[in-house]
Input
Amino acid sequence: MYAVRSPRLAGVARASLTDPIATRARRILLLGVTGSGKSTLARALEARHGIPAIDVDALAWQPGWVKTPEEDLRDAAARIAVTDSWVMDSAWSAIRPAVLPRTELVVALDLPRWLSLGRLLRRTLVRAHTKEPICGENVESWPMVLSRESILLWHFRSFADKRRRMAEWESDPAAPPVLRLRTAAEVDHWLRLARPKDES
Output
């Protein structure tokens, strides 16, 4: 079961910047490859419009890089999903059954691969050096960066799947409307346009 869309989008999953839902949504799910800027965009929406930014990775990882059991993760997401306003920065499979029925808009960050990979590489190297807390109380380390579980390798493993999901959801009339943004300029433009319905 998916979200109920505005009449203008009935039967059409693809949204554009001119659709009211694209600028007025208050329950937003971000979809994109690792390094595409989902968390940065979520925080920007929170700062600009007061839409609570939900760090899904912080819910999904316990200290010591222990994965949260899927049932617990789903329950945590469900408690958030029933509220009136949020932007979730990841679409983990475990949370989708609880989140998608409440999602007003999916924003798909389909940026050029060189851009997302460059951002990810720079971010990962900095975090491995500074030990900045991420995903809750965890930190990245050089052994992690160089291991088979490296987030850099995950970028390559998941890239095609993430882009395939964007296309599938975008073409599915039963899915929430999908706004696909292909450049950093488009992301910035949408952020300037976005104005929740309760703002004047």
